[in-house]
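Narrative of activities, Objective 1.

The group set out to show that a structural description can be obtained from nothing but a protein's sequence at a throughput compatible with the screening campaign. Below is one input-output pair from the validation batch, recorded exactly as produced.
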Amino acid sequence: MFGSCFGHDKLNTRPADVLVPNWSLGKPAAFDLTVTSLLNPSILSEAGVTAGSAAKVAECRKHDSNGPKCSELGWKCTPLALETYGCWGAEAGETLSRLATCLAIPMRCTKSKATASIYGQLSLTLKSMSRKF
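Output recorded for this entry:
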């Protein structure tokens, strides 16, 4: 299921770019991709010191805006935050690692190859999407 989170109205928010049924113990996960800039003035000083800090702020923001709606629907809120210079947030790293584990067997490859494939596909997808803006 694909959705979009373009609105900032919490009542009309659609918290999943991708809804994954049966992600964990039969509970669906709402994957919500967000890209954040390290040059945002509110996080610039921290982002210059700590890798992933901008992604962490973006993850928290997604939990604040989408968490209540996800809970209401019985979904796990799963932000996939990426910094503009390529650092993924901790939650995204954990989620993509788990996804690679799930995909390695049907792909008949190692987890590291599945991981490389996932990051490669995401890179190409995000690059093609950035041309549209």
